[in-house]
Specification:
The chain has about 80 residues and is mostly beta strands. It has one domain (about 5-70). It has two helices and five strands; from the N terminus they run ββααβββ. It has helices spanning about 30-35, 45, and strands at about 5-15, 15-25, 50-55, 60-65, 70. The strands form two sheets. The protein has a three-stranded antiparallel sheet, with no helix packed on it. Strand 1 (about 5-15) and strand 2 (about 15-25) form a beta hairpin. The longest helix has 4 residues, at about 30-35. The protein starts with a strand and ends in an 11-residue tail after the last strand.
């Protein structure tokens, strides 16, 4: 299959931080065969997380251990109170 490589940034956020990863992705032209394949998050990012899968409780959690860049998210100001 013919493809090419591009640099990309992928970002994830939680309540406190934005986690940014600089990755290389392979891009293939759209074909009927490739359009049926699911998109998958690569090990180049997942290997930097602590992942826990709890099938009986139907939960999947991920904790960021490292990221290429971390950006703190600003807290939203509280609305004025009607005191």
């Amino acid at each position: 299959m013919e493809s090419y490589v591009e640099s990309a940034l992928i970002a994830f956020a939680d309540n406190d931080q934005l986690y940014i990863y600089s990755i290389e992705i392979g891009i293939s032209p759209p074909t009927p065969e490739i359009m049926r394949l699911p998109s998958l998050l690569g090990r180049d990012i997942i290997d930097k997380w602590r992942v826990s899968y709890d099938k009986p409780n139907t939960t999947l959690t991920a904790e960021v251990i490292t990221a290429d860049t971390k950006v703190p998210l600003m807290e939203q100001p509280s609305p004025p109170s009607d005191a």
